[in-house]
Amino acid sequence: MTETSTPPIKPEKPKRRFLRAIAFFTISFLVALLIVGAPMWIAWRGFVGPSDIPARTTVLIEEGSGLGRIANQLEREGLVADALMFRVGVEVHRKASSLKAGEYEIPRHASMREIMRILVEGKPILHSITVFEGMTSWEVVEHLKLQPVLTGSVPIVPAEGSLLPETYLVTRGTSRQDVIDRMRKAQRKVINDLWDDRQEGLPFNTIEEALVLASIVEKETGKGDERDKAASVFINRLRKGMRLQSDPTIIYGITNGEGPLGRRIRRSEINAVTPYNTYQIDGLPPTPIANPGEAAIAAVLNPAETEYLFFVADGTGGHAFAKTNRQHEQNVRVWRRIQRERGLR
Q: What is the pTM of this model?
């Protein structure tokens, strides 16, 4: 019987073993990358991709809110899909300590990254608060109480005439006292700037007196093209030693600025001697009777040059001005006829 011999196994060449090792580690790395990287990629796309926010909305981040609290709030309000994903994204960008409190507008379909940017930039929504010319300080405080974006109270009603009526931009949560302080500061700046450019020879000597007269002008007419003429009437009367005879001063003396009178002035009130009744006292009342706007202050400090001493309503929302009492009485008769035709008494 013939014996057969098994051929010897040839050793694997080193190059082939190296290539196999490279292939093994490459495949292992790709598998590990897929296992670890796929979720990271999904998370990243979730952070930078568009959201399901259906419409532009707002969010209010309160003072003292940390990243965790903010992330949970955003998830609770439907602005981010996953609070943890938002937290991780913010941490990766190293912006956790840069998120700012405030009220923000979030666009439709905003991504988590975009929301993060909005909170980091800290440009909150601004609300306009308008205080109208001629409002008394009491009315201003009552008006601010009605503004839902403001907080806190105003412990003391400011001095009459110390506030500048204007439109102020505020963030939600601004205190009412802060708005009052801004109005007071704005008024001082306006009056100080205008005072330096006033006409020479005006019949008053102080800023306080100018504000008193400006408040009377403000209450007498709301028409911009009349303020300097109305101011000229009171300036001319002061120069001649005539009493101002302004109805709004009587009303202020009755109401103390706490709302409208709601009726006609009685004859007994015209005849009563009070500090605010300019039919009975010489010169100016002791304080302003409202908060005049910049235009009224400017009109008093630079009045029109006229010889007018009287004015009365003309039925159009304006006034008829007169140099003499005779002309004024004629204008009064016209106004009374208009009142009768309109059923006014």
A: 0.81
Distance CA 312, CA 318 (A): 8
Report all structural domains of the chain as residue ranges with CATH numbers, in order of start: 57-121 (3.30.1490.480), 127-186 (no CATH), 309-345 (3.30.160.60)
**Beta-carbon contacts of residue 9 (< 8 Å; ≥ 6 apart):** none
Q: How far apart are CA 342 and CA 29, in angstroms?
A: 93
**Cα dist. 303→31, 132, 281, 282, 293 in Å?**
87, 22, 23, 21, 15
CA distance 1 to 7: 19
Buried b (16+ CB within 10 A) or exposed e, 16-50: eeeeeeeeeeeeeeeeeeeeeeeeeeebbebbeee
> pLDDT (tens digit, 9 = 90+) per residue, 19-37?
555 655 555 554 444 454 4
The DSSP bridge pattern shows strands 310-313 and 319-322 to be: antiparallel
Distance (Å, whole) CA 37 – CA 34 = 5
Q: Do 137 and 291 form a contact (C-beta atoms < 8 A)?
A: yes
Cβ distance 74 to 87 under 8 Å?
no
The span from the CA of 203 to the CA of 283, in Å, is 10
